[in-house]
Amino acid sequence: MSTSHQHEGSEVAMASLGWYKSSYSSGDSGQCLEVAPTPGVLYVRDSKASGRGPVLHFPAAAWSSFITEVRDGNTPADTAV
CB-based contacts of 14: which residues, under 8 Å, 6+ apart? Predict the structure, then answer.
């Protein structure tokens, strides 16, 4: 598994990012995310696989819009979470 991630021509070392666990994480429920914000990009990974699993990346503006929509309750009613 790669320890770096290519994003728009620059390589980002995953270990050097400041990862934060979700404030909604509780104990060992196994359903937690970690995020690493950087200028313009937000990285997301599964906290169970810290450093071993895939890492998603989103433009900061897209992530902000997503969070706003979820916070405002603008998600499909039939979506299972």
Answer: 3, 4, 5, 36, 43, 51, 55
